[in-house]
């Protein structure tokens, strides 16, 4: 992965997608397979991973893993000899105001999204190929805080900082972050209709392009970061201009 040519640079590479059984991770898997890569999907639910891998074909394999459990993450990587690219969408947290959440609840974006990704990268360290590319999952709330989500804002800002710190420590391995706005995809499809519609209307009003994004648009950015050999320590905002307003 030394120059930008996604049509060939991912061929025969191994891409690990934890959270790849659904949503943005699964869309990255589809694109990577189309570009000739093999993918290893991770997540907590075997049936979801099995169905996702079956939809991708023989170059997709899967194993269960819980990014909240260090031993589980270590066991997951034991069966993968080399990692060329790594992206973790796995996270499970609550979002709310300082007044509404106690400290344990408020720490969940750090516990799951920040430390989950930290654990994954650390467990993969000895398997990363010299030109490997890591993309961390953030969220554009990092730079434009919504009304009542201060700890979630801080966790995403920390993830973008982690990408910069790891880009320095792990070079020539490249480390970047992708920071989406609100995405009309699997995550929101499983939320209450009224909550989703209100969130999409608010986001559409707040962002320059006046609509939520798509999983395909985020996946395209992740593939770009996997394959662009001269980008490291960057955060790519796939947010329709949300962070500008
Ligand atoms: N969608 C958006 O609007 C949006 C916007 C900004 C940022 N993001 C970020 O994107 C990520 C979510 O991705 P998504 O939108 O594609 O949602 P998603 O479809 O819900 O994907 C999350 C995946 O992670 C897995 N997972 C959750 N917790 C896990 C754990 N502890 N260990 C292993 N796997 C776990 C889930 O499967 P199991 O439950 O089976 O484990 C699921 O397949 C989050 O970090 C979120 O903050 C999303």
From TrEMBL:
Protein name: NAD(P)-dependent dehydrogenase (Short-subunit alcohol dehydrogenase family)
Annotated organism of origin: Microbacterium saperdae
Keyword Amino-acid biosynthesis tagged: no
Keyword tags: Oxidoreductase
Domain Ketoreductase: 13-191
Molecular function in Gene Ontology: oxidoreductase activity
Alphabetized InterPro entries for the sequence: KR_dom (IPR057326), NAD(P)-bd_dom_sf (IPR036291), SDR_DHRS6-like (IPR051122), SDR_fam (IPR002347)
Gene3D superfamilies: NAD(P)-binding Rossmann-like Domain
Family: Belongs to the short-chain dehydrogenases/reductases (SDR) family.
Signal sequence range: none
UniProt KW Oxidoreductase keyword: yes
Lineage: Bacteria, Bacillati, Actinomycetota, Actinomycetes, Micrococcales
One Pfam family it belongs to: adh_short_C2
